[in-house]
Amino acid sequence: MSRVARGSVVELRGQRCCQLCGGPTQPVVALAEVVAKVHRALDEAQLALESQEQLIEDLRADDVGRSQGAVDPPPSEEALAARRALALLTARERQILVLISQGNSNRCVAKELGISEKTVKNHLTAIFTKVGASDRTQAVVMGIRSGIVSIGEPFNDASGPIGANE
Predict the structure, then answer these.
(1) Which residues have a Cβ under 8 Å from the Cβ of 22 and sit 6 or more positions away?
(2) What CATH architecture does domain 77-166 belong to?
(3) CA angle in degrees (0–180, nearest 5) for 158-64-78
(4) What is the pLDDT of residue 3?
(5) pLDDT along the chain (166 residues), means of 10
(6) Distance CA 89, CA 148 (A)
(7) For 134, what's the count of Cα atoms within 13 Å in the CB-facing half-sphere?
(8) What 3-state class would DSSP assign to 4?
(9) pTM flag (> 0.85)
(10) Contact criterion met (CB below 8 Å) for 29 and 37
């Protein structure tokens, strides 16, 4: 058996640490605390993913109902306001909205459109401002509800080629 060097214990940032190695005096307890924090973070991420998946399922169900000839109820004031706001988007902003609705990152959108990632971020900021969204999920939901974005269909913008009107 090897001998374990025992150093004195010091206070470091409010925690008792081994003076020899700087580690916690009770590494198992410290490890258990870290593992508990990781589990809490994973639980929060799982809840967020489940809520996003539910939103996607609900939107797909709405989209399927429309494609099967279901009669849409008259649009609410909120939906009409969303349509008016989305009507302010440029063709390029609409392209970006469709591409982010497909789950693309800013980098992928930039590569697809042949523009810089910073330009994509600038367009997203403009989209959020025009439609009153605080994030890309809200903007995509508004796009789906207004008919600009359709779930599950490949990108097809009738307003012109991808490289036009930046």
Answers:
(1) 12
(2) Orthogonal Bundle (1.10)
(3) 75
(4) 42
(5) 45 55 65 86 86 80 64 66 79 91 92 94 92 87 79 50 38
(6) 10
(7) 0
(8) coil
(9) no
(10) no
